[in-house]
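Re: [ENG-882] Designed sequences occasionally contain unexpected residues at chain ends

Forwarding the minimal case from QA. Structure tokens:
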């Protein structure tokens, strides 16, 4: 296929798509012809050096820069936000072909005794359960389109990383969940990869 048409007519949701790797993923899909829904969390309460650095502002900037994108505020740790994300995508575009579970966080280096159970829970909510929730809610639509799920995991989930026990555990779990989902969804023609 010609460059720019590989995903023509396809609809993709990218979580954490307002910056960094996520914004790069959005750009690659748009360049291949897809319509992309950019999902990112509202961090307006976070103190930043400039309001233009806030996630919403970055997401809106990507939306303006790349025709074929729509930015929606969505916190993947809140199931009601994710449910709205999926229903709004279907309302706007009529179908869903791919989800990219990119939203995540890597805490600064910490020795195990410096971590807390609460911090670990919050990381699990974002890095693992956010991926699970969007996937679960998107699957009925992805089965219709014989679409795919792309989970952004990390090699450290398999090989480990110093001073990153909670992060490594969440990414290892994402990899394991991806393998299990791939087995379950193959009967529906849905591809699940990391």
């Amino acid at each position: 296929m010609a460059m720019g048409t590989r995903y023509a007519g396809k609809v993709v949701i990218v979580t954490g798509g307002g910056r960094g790797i996520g914004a790069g993923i959005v750009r690659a899909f748009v360049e291949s012809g897809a319509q992309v829904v950019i999902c990112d969390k509202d961090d307006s309460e976070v103190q930043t050096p400039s309001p233009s650095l806030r996630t919403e502002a970055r997401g809106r900037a990507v939306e303006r820069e790349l025709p074929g994108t729509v930015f929606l505020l969505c916190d993947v740790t809140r199931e009601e936000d994710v449910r709205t994300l999926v229903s709004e995508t279907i309302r706007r575009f009529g179908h869903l072909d791919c989800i990219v579970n990119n939203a995540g966080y890597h805490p600064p280096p910490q020795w195990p005794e410096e971590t807390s159970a609460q911090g670990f829970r919050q990381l699990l909510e974002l890095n693992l359960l956010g991926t699970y929730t969007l996937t679960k809610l998107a699957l009925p639509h992805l089965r219709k389109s014989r679409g795919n799920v792309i989970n952004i995991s990390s090699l450290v989930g398999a090989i480990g990383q110093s001073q990153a026990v909670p992060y490594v555990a969440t990414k290892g779990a994402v990899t394991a969940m991806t393998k299990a989902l791939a087995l379950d969804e193959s009967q529906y023609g849905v591809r699940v990869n990391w």
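QA comment: On inspection the terminal residues look reasonable. The domain at 11-193 is CATH 3.40.50.720 (Rossmann fold). Proposing we downgrade this to a documentation issue.
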